[in-house]
Amino acid sequence: EWIEVESVDHQVFECITDGLVKGRFLNLLYRSIKGSESRREVAPQRLINYQGRWYLLAYCQLRNSDRLFHISRISRAEITKRRIPPDFASDSDIIEQSFGIFRGQEVCYAEILFTDTAAELVRHQYWHKDQRVKEVKGGVRLSLPVSDYREITMKILQYGAMAKVIGPPELKQKVREEVLLMGEMYRRPVDKVPGG
After folding, report:
1. Terminal CA-to-CA distance of the chain, rounded, Å?
2. Cross-strand partners of 55
3. Using an 8 Å Cβ cutoff, are 53 and 6 in contact?
4. Run of H or E residues at 16
5. What is the pLDDT along the chain (196 residues), one digit of tens a residue?
6. Is 20 in contact with 47 (CB distance < 8 Å)?
7. Inter-residue contact 149 to 105 (CB < 8 Å)
8. How far apart are CA 103 and CA 51, in angstroms?
9. To bridge 148 with a disulfide, which of 17, 37, 87, 102 should be the other Cys (CB 3.0-4.6 Å)?
């Protein structure tokens, strides 16, 4: 079964794997989600396949921190002659600290109440190694660490009215705003829908 699989440039992918195996820095031409391009020198740490998408966890010289690079947005990659020092320390555990692939600075716990068929589904699902699922009247309450609200918001919205954010207040507000924007979009007449 296919999910949102994205293709990657095979030469870019091969260069990244070579850099990982040889322990060398890479020069990347990277395009952000908003389309702006930047040149990055990175120390590659590991490849990650997350829900059909390839990511490179690397230490970015420009940002002076560990970053996740979506490989389908890397248009060029070159191996440099510069070796990654053997004692180079990178926080490769950042991937497992919170739910999803997106990263933020602070980790907090999201609590979501699931009812009806969503409760039955979530009761048996594994979203994160530190999740807690508690049986409550009318459903289940899922608690899990998050450090960025984008992906958890998408996950909550997939369950519609059978998912209610209990906290934190910032996540509750983000989901509320998204639902209002969606409601406004569906109130427009069909012939005025952008792109339609």
Report:
1. 29
2. 48, 70
3. yes
4. helix 10-22
5. 556 667 889 999 999 999 999 999 999 999 988 999 999 999 999 898 877 788 898 999 998 888 889 999 999 999 999 999 888 776 656 666 665 556 656 778 999 999 999 999 999 988 888 899 999 999 999 999 998 888 899 999 999 999 999 999 999 999 999 999 999 888 877 655 566 5
6. yes
7. no
8. 16
9. 102
13 with 71: CB under 8 angstroms?
A: yes
Closest CA to 128 of 115, 118, 143: 143
Residue carrying the six token digits 């005025």:
192
b/e per residue, 144-165, with b = 16+ CB within 10 A? bbbbbbebbbebbeebeebbbb
> 80 and 26 in contact (C-beta within 8 Å)?
yes
Task: Count Cβ atoms below 10 Å from residue 181 Cβ, excluding itself.
Answer: 9
